[in-house]
Write a structure and sequence with these properties.
Elements lengths: L3 H11 L9 H21 L4 H24 L1 H11 L4
Helix pairs in contact: 1-2, 2-3, 3-4
Length: about 90
Amino acid sequence: MLTAEEKSKIIGEFKLSEDDTGSFEVQVAMLSKRILALTEHLQSHRKDFSSKRGLYKLVGERRRLLSSLRRVDEDRYVSLIKRLGIRK
């Protein structure tokens, strides 16, 4: 789970405007942070199948958000992927 401090740091880094907390960039960055934390957890707890299911759900949600962003604005999509380093 992300702490409030981590969330505000991510929001500050990826926000598009001063009041932005829900843009594609912010949502994908938060999901990426949670995915990274769950991946680290699963490396040491290989048989934690409920966490693995949660990881798959988060990855699917991030994939859907990225697909939507790609349809809306290709340039923002490419920029976000490069900043997060999640795809080729």
